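=== Given protein ===
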Amino acid sequence: MTAASPLVAALDLSSRNVLVVGAAHPSAADRIRSLSAAAASVTLVAPAAALSPAIKALVADGAIAWLNRPLADSDLDGKLLALVAEPDLAAAARVAALCRSRGVLVAATDPAVRSDIDLAVPAPLDSSASSRTESPSPPSPASVASAASIPASDALSTLAGSTPAHIGKRLHRQVSATLPLKTSAALANISALSAALPPFSPRSSAFVDHLAETWGISRLASLTPADIDTLVKACGQGTDKPDIGLLSSVHGPIGSVAFVDVASDDANLLTRAAFNAIVDADIVIADASVPASILDLVVAGGLVRLDAASAGRHGFGHSVTVHAVEAGKQAVRLVWSPSGASSTADDERALLEAEGIATSVVPTAGRVSAKTAAVETSAPAAEVSAKPDDAQTLVDLHRHHAASTASAVALSVPRHTVTGRTGARLVIDASDALSRVVYALSDLVFIYPVLQTEYVGRQLLDLSAAATQNARSVVPKVVKLATSAASGRVFQGAAASAHSSSQSATAVLSSAALGSLLPALYSMARDGHAPVLHVGAHTIDADFAVHANYADVLKAAHTGFAILASASVQEVHDMAVIAHAVSQIAHTPVLHFFDAARVAGQTAVVNVVSPASVSAAISSLAGKVSATQPTVDSCVDAVDAVFDGLAATLGARYHPVEYHGPSDASIVIVSMGLASALARETVDAFAAAGTGPAVGALNVRLYRPWSPARLVAALPASATTVVVIGDAADDLASHSAFTLDVVSAIYAAAATGKAAPRVFKPVFAKGAQHFTSLAITKLVRELASGGAVHHAIAFDAADASLEEFKRAAAVEAVFWDRDVDGTRAVGDKVVAHFTADESAFVQRATQHLGACIEPKTVTHLRYGPAPITTSELVHAADLVQCHDASILATHNVVASVRAGGKLLVNTAQTPAEFAKSLDVAVRQSILERRVSVSLLNVARVAKDFTIFYGTPADYANDILQAAFLRLAFDGSDFDDHYTRLVARVQNGESSHNIARTKLLAMDRGIESLVAVDASLLRASDDDVDALSTVVSALDIQPTIPAARVQVGEAAAATASDPTSTLVSPYHAALPVMFPAAFRTQRVLRPDIDGPTFQVRVTENVRLTPGTYDRNIFHIEFDTTGTGLTYDIGDALGVHAHNDPVAVRAFLEHLGVSGDTLVAMDRESAGGRKVSELRSLEHVFTQVLDIFGKPGKKFYQYLAYRAADADEQERLLSLLDATEVLDAFVAKHTPTFVDLLKMFPSARVTVDELVRIVPAIKPRHYSIASSQRVHPNSVHLLVVLVDWVTPTGETRFGQATRYLVNARPGQAVTVSIKPSVMRLPERLTDPVIMAGLGTGMAPFRAFIEERWYWRSKGFAVGPMVLYFGSRHRSMEYLYGEELDAYHADGLLTHLGLAFSRDQADKVYIQHKIAGDADLIYELMVKQSGNFYLCGPTWPVPDVADALVSAFQSGMAESEARELLERFKETERYVLEVY
């Protein structure tokens, strides 16, 4: 088999597990390097003596994992492919046979050993080239030629030369997604055929090789078992080269033809389907005019290029196509039609279909503009000149194209310049700024909101309702639509209509809605329409908090739309103007996006250009900018021309790619959108400081069309490190599409000889929404230091070393409000006050704190004499106002105050009471940061004036505004501001008396400000109130802050995260000795909001035989004196413990004593703060689910913490793909403890484990007893959950392991949980019960309850029980009891279904269906109740059986409606799991 085989060329090893056995074969090193370059996860099993220097280097670099031992059978688990590199033929044959017996594909280095697949061997790389080389030289012609004979992935790696290995892997992963989807099926069939043929037979090897080389992937993937049997027989009869005609299932042509209509030379604008079709094709027949940039995509198949004479209905192209199809090829016909005409293609399709050949039309390539000109492109050097007489030869051609590279062009470095803003100066938010532009320049507007309120573009509806005219003196039509695929088609139709009538169609939407519109975007670009989309990019987390995220926007990168990014409120306005100009002038569809989490919610001073000025400027550009852009570069040039043409109107000159910073920068930050503004601030901060490295920022303002040449040209030649800020993905193991685009451009340029800087992609501690200029400053300092750089970056606002980078606004303030108080209006009043001064600039951003019982809002405000360009939130304010003291108990308000800043708290407490109420850690933070604290009792001040006018709420906001001015300004500045405020109040009130009363209240508020003396905030050892926070039963925080364990950067604590503090024995004894002073209580489970009880085991009996594979047991607990009560149907929550022996072993592994005392701060399920004093052994035995299953975040945490490079690489490889991690988890079922032992270099402290390991959750079991029958006991029916891992290890469910081992007398902590399983109120109502396995538990309680009432002389209604399990002799649970109840008549009917006791399986639904008359009588005529408990799978069948029974007296539709009514009235109750 040769490397040109379609099967081999399409083999995708990205993230797949590959085993290499042996390393002594001469070609082993090259083949292992090939596997590593293909991004496979390679494990080498070989003795140390067999490793060559080249292989040792791969091991040292972490490219492969190495096991220094003989091959074990378990090494083949989860492996797709095994490379057998044993030099001994007999040993290699044995290994190959073992691999095939385990279903693993074999590739052997020795041709005498039969291979299932041949691995292409890349040209050996120069041994001097390594991932550490910083300036790779251009590839030689010989190396490029050799790349043409290897798979595309290897060609890419060879071109990349000496670039870092992980960059090559990431680039390959981006390309590998385009490989054929049928590859796996084809490989499986080849493997099955190989296994069925005689082993070690040269005839068999030749037979399989011929099939893989000539039949194509689609043919191989479609083989049936009968086909494989036929081929085996043919091989046995001596056939060496099987023909497709051997298969009886083959009739007529096997191949097919896909037509791709190409309208642009930009491969980036191809649809995904068109791209895949070209790459996957066995042969591509292309028009002569198809550009080389499109032909370079032909990687795996042959290429036939037609001249003008060969094309046409009866030309040579038709003959080649037919011959290719008859040979079983998957052909692609590339038709060049820049004008959109495809009549020739239609004729060819009709002719082929008339001859019985299957054809299809692939969604055509997206166009940059509606009008494109034909491009004359010279044929590539390797092109085959096609002649009519060599069609047979052309069909068999297989040609590989090396990856195209981008070379830097000579461009001047573009810089963003502001030439003098024009237009009206307004204080508005981004949504308002956008809406004004959209309304002025559109004829038809669609709004797709995701949120009910506060959505982007909401002002458009107000403008439309007021019948406001746009720049064309007409009233645009504004339509608000729900997000769906259908609404996307509506917009597509509207865009088509607008295009035909020379009108403008616009959509304003959230990025969450963009996915539904993607198909419409492809179609609109294909059809040459030019709508404009304005997209607010964000994501909403589980707490309903809004964060920045560009991931959804990047999904539109290949739709054919130009993509613009903006970073501030002013830029949202300017880019909106430019987007509409590009659409109207260049006839190009445009998507403009911005940060909906920060920018959209900001209010700022914006220069808004009038509609008339914008319209006139666009009209003047119409004749200066070309309306046709046949290439990517020409489209980028057209957008740049619009930037230039509107510079005078907007007062700012923008560029597609902009550089900001010194020309000799060594570190360059590449970003787009909001991140670019913050990166620019970082550059300015370093420049102002005059110390540190030379830092520059590169802002990609035009993301599509992608221009790698402009990006590379804008990078300073001095740059040695590039930091790429992608989208908001908080994932160490993944890269955004933007990141990959930047990396590809840099390393493609490196292949042409340009020095390649190292590329670094950081992840910010809680996602890119926490990316700030100070966080990136911290990263730049680490990079410049030359030391170890952490991938995860966190910024602590208290970090004094970064305070010099604080921006120079006159005032930065933060307001904390509860929405219920109405004090959010203080921010509005302050903004209105500042903007009354036309020479001042103000910015406000509102942050909602997500879902909580009491919604809270944080307002970030900046004020100063110069324009405010930043878009980040205020992280260290001069003044923070907390408008309700209760917020201090739930949020870290003090952290938002800068060192030396001021804090104002609205509270009724005195300074001493206020200080005492604060957590000691908060008090210490105030002292350490030198924060001045002032108190104001707004309610008391306002109350004194309500006798004259209004309510306290009428005064509160004015009082708080006056207090803000008093604290924010000093001396004459305060006098000026307060004089203006007085004038505003006087002018704003119609009544002089009301104005005077408000002014008096404001004066009184300023006079009532009380400072908190620092001495009140200091804690001492003899301060009983301070020490009382060490232990609190319910709501007090622990102290002793000096002993608090520091939190790592990778996972900064939030207000709700649990924390721990090591406690000395002395302090631990105090709350025990003095419980009254410390308010100490002994509570079983302080983290549980409801009551908990400690019961003792009295009986634990296995109900199934010991030889049976299911352990179902009955366990009873004594409740005497506990106060535990329960109702029929309730569930018992068991608070299980971890295995004490395993816990002690783990603590020993950590190197800590289990007797160490720790004070834990946690929150209950209801959000109540609790503190607990425990030993470490108790914490890990009773609290933390340390033997539970970790989530992905824990793997990421370990990857950050791993000090060993090999361990970190292994962890990152697990995170590369979900299927890789899933396979690892399925194989090992690792616990938190397992992972900590597997990766010992990832040192995690006890405090960190308390924060990141979840608490043990109670496991709830239906109670199997009636408390009336067993007044001092509660019973459970439990099945032991156990399983065997693929490695042969037996594991158990935590709670069932705990219960099955519980012995009489053992104490168990339990709680009660209500259930929907309730008996009817009337004792005489019929009850029908259906229980499967342990689902019998609640019905045992039902039966006992009815038996109790009957024993007291009460009449009870019919009771019917259906019970199901596998075997009567094995698991007829409570069988003797049930038989007795049945014989007694309490159970009026007993339907037993033991599924495996007979040949035909019988389940409870069959028994129910057989009792249709009984069911109808009891349920319909006697108003009975039906209950089902057990697994979910029989629910549909049981419902059908009931409906069938009801049809005894009604139609099927009526029966189903009746069942629904029973469900609504709780007469049909399900408790399934």
The chain has 54 helices and 53 strands. Residues 569-586 form the longest helix (18 residues). The chain has a mean pLDDT of 76.
